[in-house]
Amino acid sequence: MTEASRYLSEYGDLSRLPLFSQHTNGSTPAVPKLGAPVTVPPTTGPDVDWSIVAELRARASEQLSQAVASDRNRLDKAAQQELGRSIVLDLIESAMADDVDAGRGAWSPGRQQATAQAVFDSLFRLGRLQPLVDNDDIENIVIVGHDNVLLELVDGTLIDGPPVADSDPELIDFLVFLASRSEVNARSFSEAQPRLHLRLDGGSRLAAAAWVTPRPSVVIRRHRLMQVTLDDLVAREMMTPTAASFLRAAVRARRSIVVAGAQGAGKTTLVRALCAEIDAMEAIGTFETEYELHLHELGRHKVVHAWEARPGSGERGPDGRQAGEFTLDEALVDSFRFNLSRQIVGEVRGKEIWAMIKAMESGTGSISTTHAADAVAAVRKLVTCAMEAGPHVTQGLATSKLAATVDLIVQLSMETGAVPGGAQRTRRVAEIIALAPGEREVGYATTHVFRADASGVAVPDVLPDEYRALAHYGFDLAAYLSTQAYGVQP
Length: 490
Description:
alpha+beta; 12-stranded mixed β-sheet; 3-stranded parallel β-sheet; T2SS/T4SS_dom
């Protein structure tokens, strides 16, 4: 019996490690309750040698690829993970034996488990990023180089995070591996394709850039507030009860709404809260470049058809399209055969605005998001997006379409202030404007139904006559009128 064998018999069977006795099923982690206490995230334990993890992950990936390629029935994801556990177990035993035979000492049970988990996470999950993504206190992970990591917690606090790789090239290599391994959402990430947008297991969204930036840049957004309502956002002081009653009534009255704000201002969270006001029996269609709303997973509505755009690959054909490309516009056209009650187009950054306009033209009470500094600027931003479709779209056409289809724009603000030990972000509904066709010179007219007061909170301002009818849908008109005099006047 070798020294390694005696060591294994002394410490027991590695298959008893939690990694192999508790299966990872890829389910979405539990969403924390609103108001739950926030703790500082743990850093990586000292028992992991990441150079060994990188080597074992490469060997495990090669063995797994060979096994999958040789299996004529094609292993599904669960079977691949089971096979992966077996491969990782063999590699860990081999690495332990090599160290013992070389006189480098035996591995402790803690190191066994930590290394096995790290290899498994690198192979099937997010490697060194996984503990951060699993931490329910963390909402956003911002990476500018392997050792420059900023964590935004669910309460808005900003703190430094641990390194996520040993070098920038190692971080890039892992991102390339991560982008290529998905069966249904694979992306190319290379010097020829230096940007990456990827939906991760569990609902997180990853955006990355390399080769065109000084250091690899990554942002991971994990949407913590999933089962969220307007009342929840009132409790978090994101808006007043009066503003919530207005938005609730607008959704029920099938007004089309655009939620605008800076990156990370909470636009997607607000859209989920607005969608929670849609009747559970209405058939909903969602259209997104990457799944973020996850209405099809929340269980609030009986029927949710969720479409996700798919980038093509390879050279472009005579029509300018890559093979396999599937656009939001194509999804929207298909959706008209699905008997939908609502069509909700997610984030609008460019030409996808025409899918949003078509959805709103159908009169279903659509909801979308965009980036803008203020509510009126959001209109100009959307006009610019519409004109990106080509020279056939004039400013006049784009303006008239938007003025005729968008009813309300809800502007979110985000402020970052210093607090002991770091910084903290505060998010609020700052404006709600009504959009309507207007003067020929501009093409649209805006009315501030709610305007930000001195503290940045949206308070009643001017209510167009046609919006008084929202009282039939639950709008607290009396509360609006009673506080109107205290609003910021134009």
